[in-house]
Specification:
Layout: H1 3-14, H2 16-24, H3 30-47, H4 53-69, H5 84-121
Helix pairs in contact: 1-3, 3-4, 3-5, 4-5
């Protein structure tokens, strides 16, 4: 695992506060910015042949389906039918959170693996 991949992922994590700010302001470009952000992370993982990139691709695909078809993903439930804008915002927030979890979990695994490798050397 190269340090470059870790640095790229940490750089992408630093973008989360900007995206969260867009969500808080209910900015019209929140959806598109999160999709671009997810695509960048997907590319980092896939370029480096890391399988979790496929999970992010699936999340991004779900966002596209929400946008084009108004489909409500099975992982979300609403008390009543949401407006298209509320649906997009909820799905975007949910899949952004799931993507952050994937990145954190991956970085934790790498950190543990590096720690074990260093312990075995000593």
């Amino acid at each position: 695992m190269s340090q470059q991949v870790i640095d790229e992922l940490q750089n992408q994590l630093s973008q989360v506060s900007i995206l969260t700010e867009l969500a808080d302001r209910r900015a019209s470009d929140f959806f598109d910015e999160v999709k671009k952000w997810m695509k960048a992370i997907e590319n980092i993982f896939i370029t480096n042949k890391i399988a979790v990139g496929a999970h992010i691709a699936t999340y991004r695909d779900n966002l596209i389906c929400v946008d084009h078809d108004g489909l409500i993903p099975e992982v979300l439930a609403f008390y009543r039918d949401p407006s298209r804008i509320k649906l997009k915002r909820a799905c975007t927030t949910f899949f952004m959170q799931k993507t952050v979890e994937i990145i954190y979990n991956y970085l934790l695994q790498i950190s543990a693996a590096l720690g074990n490798a260093n312990n075995n050397r000593g």
